[in-house]
Amino acid sequence: MQYQSVLLTTIEISVVFFGFIIVFLTFVMGGKDQRKADRMHSRALLTAAFPLLVVPFIPLVVDAYGGSEAMAWRAFHIGGVLAGMITGTIMTWFCLKLNREELKEVGYLHTVVSFGMGTIATGFFWAGMFGYAPAGNALAGILCMLILTATSLLSFAAQQMSLFDWRNP
To answer: In three state form, how does the secondary structure of the chain look?
Structure first.
């Protein structure tokens, strides 16, 4: 299967991401009463990391069961579309529970980049599902998912360390 090594590398990166996120959240947030913005960031981290861990397995499983490469890519893209829709729905629901001040605390840049990358990734998966450049759209979708997860992790860490508190340099 073409790009099998990319899928395996993505899985390895996502395992490290997911493990780091779980350890990070356990030690940073464990046992403390958290603000809504902190909970929103942690939810974004976990919600974005999980599909990145699961979706790249789909074409490998289809290939292992003797499916064609076209079938494997189609299954990958269907999984990506479902993951994007579920993730988008969950994160939209969480965002709707925030008031303007809490959303400002979460960060407009974080919110725009996260929703933007998720929407773009899902768009690539939709296009690949309908047969337009399946391998290329898969790689572009994976890249967007990695950027989404990294953005969530970076913005959460920066907020915890008060890096963007411009009034207190």
So the answer is: CCCHHHHHHHHHHHHHHHHHHHHHHHHHHCCCCCCHHHHHHHHHHHHHHHHHHHCCHHHHHHHHCCCCHHHHHHHHHHHHHHHHHHHHHHHHHHHHCCCHHHHHHHCHHHHHHHHHHHHHHHHHHHHHHCCCCHHHHHHHHHHHHHHHHHHHHHHHHHHHCCCCCCCCC
